[in-house]
Structures are given as structure tokens and as C-alpha cells.
Amino acid sequence: MPSTSDAAATLAHDQAVGRLRASYERIGVGEPVRLAKRSSNLFRPRTELSTPGLDVSGLTGVISVDPVARTADVQGMCTYEDLVAATLPHGLTPMVVPQLKTITLGGAVTGLGIESSSFRAGLPHESVLEMDILTGAGEVYTARPSGRHALLFRVFPNSYGTLGYATRLRISLDRISPYVALRHVRLSLDELAPAIDEIVASGSYRDEPVHFVDGVAFDPSEAYLTLGRNSDAAVRTSDYTGQQIYYRSIQQRQTDFLTAHDYLWRWDTDWFWCSAAFGAQKPLVRRLWPRRWRRSDVFHKLVGFENRHHVAARLNARRGGAPRERVVQDVEIPVASLAAFLRWFDVEVGMRPVWLCPLRLRGSDSWPLYPLEPGATYVNVGFWGTVPIAPGAADGDVNRSIEDAVARFGGHKSLYSDAYYDRDTFDRLYNVPALTEVKQRYDPDARLTGLYEKAVTRR
User: Which one of 23, 30, 92, 95 has the fewest CB atoms closer than 10 angstroms to its CB?
Assistant: First the structure.
């Protein structure tokens, strides 16, 4: 029987879903449907709309946590920051916690999320036990791995709101210790794949347990895997929310300790290394920059301001600098091709550093819209920044070359940022026929924007 507080939370949730459905009914047929929320972790430009969005204001919390069953019922717009705050007191976390605090659980499931537990826990949608989805038909259905709406459950991941929006998700939780002990292991590019294979196969590296693994390639001669181990005690703990910067410590220290909380959010303070673009890594600026504003969503808003007003672009042009192309992507590369892809990337794109995160589907089935091969190990390669547009080239050419290379290396590209595929290629890579089949059932009037339109043509 639920506790009084759980019952109150459930009642509040039901009322919030009612307001959401009412807001959906107020949107006229033919008008675009969007979420009315303040922040986004997408990097695709969005058209400013004057029509009202869906009221998700009451869907931002944790309904309940069951520490015995190790599950949580969570509203779709709940951020991982708030979700982790509810689970950590129980010594629990979501199976996969994406790196940025304001990513929402519903967003990570209808899109993609990844983190250093993904080599053993897969992707966020693999820990979903059931979810309530507001569909394009205006109905809310409970979808599970089996049963009447099982196909909706399977096709929802990577659908990016084209099938509907998750209002509630029940997820499995994982145990985590109070501290995480880190080892930063320097490897050559050719040593990365064998080390990752060893970790995936045994859950250890050189006879020491590994519960978390990600890495950074600073250049072709300097790459690291950071191996995390749950620990009940710490010799000392580091703080990378102040003057010290986490990614630089990877080159400076062989071992480290962080609290579980600080480990989960180690990348958020400096948006990996992208805070440097705003001067936030300069010691004087860092001392003056309020700590509460040193976080990824603040940096994202600054990028949004630049996208609207082009202040930095105009200053760059005034100084005689070449126009620049935004290259913000995450791609999954088969582990055996990792070294070759990184060498290609360094020569053809030249952005440094890049993030590395091994992943492997947790289950034995592929997910239709992002068809990674079960039993295969991939490495997410993340790179975020800008490159100069070469004379005679056009904006988008570098991103197109990356898309071509990812396909040649047998990989896949996430759709949270710019995409340039033609329709036929996109439909093949992201299995749009499977999406269309489900969409005809749950959004028969096509009220929700299609995946190609969202990801490529940006409608």
C-alpha cells in the first residue's frame, strides 16, 4: 500500500496529466505541437512558435522511490539532477545517469542517453519497466515490454517526440557506494580497444573491479580511460566545482576520489571542457563567475543567445576570422574501428579533445529506431565545438563528412544535434518504416512532427 506521501504525489501526478491533456486539446488541428518547457539539451535550431505548448509544469518530479525493489516512479519532465537527489539518500542511482543535470528522464528515453555505466547497463531506455505515454491521438497509454502496447514501448526510444511524450516512467535503480575511486590510465589509440574489451568481458582491468568507464582522447598520442570503482571510503575527495577543472585532472593525476554525487556530475560544471569558450576556465574569470552559474544549462543558454544574436560571429568577422561551422555530435563507433575513426577524425576535423564512452546493449534485442547490434561493443565519441569553414567549402560540409565516415566505420549518430542526411538514407539508418507503422496506430492524424522533419529539416 502506498504511503500518504506517495498517495499525495500520485494524486498530484494524475492532476498534472489532466492539465497536460487539456492543453493538448486546446492546440488546433494542423498547429505544431511542442513542449512548453524552459530548457532543452537539444542543439538543433528550433523555430520560435507563438502557439501555446503542452503544459508539463506539473510533471517535473519523482513520484516515489522503492529502495527494496530498487525502482522509482518518475515523471517525464523530471531532470536527472532531481532524480539523483531523490535516489542517492537510499544508496541508489538510475542505471545510467547522463552527464548533464538538466537532461530529463523522458528526454533521455525518447532520445538517447549514455554514461560511464553504459558498458554494463546499456542505455537509459533499457532500464524502463513501464511508461505512460501521451500519444498523438491525445490518449495516454501504459506501455510495457509485453502486452497490448509492447510495440509502442519498443519503438519509443529515439523517436524524439514523434510518437508522443512520456508522462510517467517506472525504472530500475542501481546500487552506488558513497564514493567512487578513479584510475586514469594512459593508453595509445591502439591500446584502447583491447582494454575496453577486457573491461567489458570481465568487469575489471588488471585485476581491479571496474564499475564505470569513460575516457578522453586529447590527441592521437595521448588518450586515457578513466576507470571508476564503488568505494565505501575515500583517502580524500576532490572538488571540481570550484577553481579546479575535472578534465584537466585526467592528465595530472593517476588516481582520485570523488563523492558519488560529484562523480555523477563531474562533467556538468564545465560542460565537459566547453566552458572554455566562455572564458570560464580562466582563473580570474572563474573566481568571479558565481558557482551556481557554473553549470551546463547556463552555458547552453549562452549558446542560445549567440544563435539568436550572432555576437561572437560578428566579432570574429570583424577581426578577419573565417566563418565557423558548428560541429556538435555524439556517434557510436564499433570498438574494433575506434582507433581508425579517431585518426580519421583528427586529420579531417581536428577538434580536440574528444570524449570516449564504451557502451553495450544490456539486453539481447535491438531497438528498432537505433539499431545497435546486441552483444557488440561500441564507443560513443563525443565532440562539441566549431571549426573554420575552409575557402570554397560550405557550412555543413564537415558535419556531412562525419556522417559519411560514421557509416563507413559501421557506426550510428545521435539525433540531438544537426543532421544532413537525405530522406532515403535517413529512413534506412533510423528504420523510419518501423516508426511509420507505429505512428499510424498512435498518431493517425499525424499531429506530431515526423522524425526526419525534426532531425533534419527542423520543422
Answer: 30
